[in-house]
């Protein structure tokens, strides 16, 4: 079998799909279909398109009587509601006004503008009774923390349904691997080193062998604003209204990219000590980099206890159960005897 690759741009980032196939036509057809799914979700949920579904939905939902929501968006809203509850309000898709306020700023926002944006933030301020959504006028939903990861999982599912079990989907660093190489070996995925973000060589913080599942990275170094010599990232704490401060990046390996992205973002929001404690108890493999350049990691076998975070093992299962039904982990590749879900070994590149 030959490895075929397809590169494209979507969701504001470079993307790539790789599949092993017996023919170029089969591979190209599958990769095109998977890429089309990513483009579809970008068009539907982009906040930068005035004609997008999410833009029109928000306008309608702010009117008397609210708006009727389609099944796919309903599933994402239900997932977001679960994340909000389990995170103690830290994972909140209603923080769109705060995100807009901090987007590419040259000066710090005033306390008055922060307070105003926070008035439009808070899941408890909207009414969601499926399929009807009602938003306070001025509230903006921010689905950036779920849609790209969801798209990676959806694209991977299309490849599996096409019978391509040795493949990967990578959307701007968020990855879903459907299964290992045909010989049973893992894909070697790299995590970008925040300290070398402007280096053309693309130095990696670590090399990660991944047999299957999702790999997502959240960080404060790709997007944000430089104000008075200090960098402020794009991940905003919806409670304080300020960008997160503490961890520079967090990468998580999970059964799906959506779950991996939710956990990595939550770790960033929780801060260094609580975030690392949560990652330790999550039962997932992870790699974190602190603001002072210290890296640490844990494997799926690491179950050290802590009472400093809101997620228990039962709640982790609840998170997975809340995922949209068509976004559950892809079935494993039964054509190989390779292990299905081995913990990644976080390896420093040579």
Strand and helix map with partners:
Elements (H helix, E strand, L loop, with lengths): L1 E9 L2 E9 L2 H22 L7 H9 L5 E2 L2 H16 L9 H7 L8 H9 L7 E3 L2 E3 L12 H15 L5 E5 L2 E4 L9 E6 L11 E7 L2 E7 L4 E4 L2 E4 L13 E8 L2 H14 L1 H10 L3 E6 L4 E4 L14 H9 L29
Antiparallel strand pairs: 1-2, 2-6, 3-5, 4-5, 6-7, 7-10, 8-9, 10-13, 11-12, 13-14, 14-15
Number of strands: 15
Query: Which CATH top level class of the domain at 53-134 fits?
Result: Mainly Alpha
The assigned CATH architecture of the domain at 53-134 is Orthogonal Bundle
Which percent range fits the helix content?
Answer: 25-40%
Can you summarize the main beta sheet? Answer: 8 strands, antiparallel
CATH homologous superfamily heading of the domain at 53-134: ApbE-like superfamily
Shape: globular
Query: Order of SSEs, N→C?
Result: EEHHEHHHEEHEEEEEEEEHHEEH
Give the integer mean of the pLDDT values: 85
Beginning-to-end CA distance, first to last residue: 29 Å
Q: What is CATH's topology name of the domain at 53-134?
A: T-fold
Summed up, the helix count is 9
Estimate what percentage of residues fall within beta strands.
Answer: 15-25%
| Structural class by helix and strand composition | alpha+beta
Radius of gyration: 20 Å
Detail the poorly predicted runs: 301-313, 328-350
- Strand order in the largest sheet: 1-2-6-7-10-13-14-15
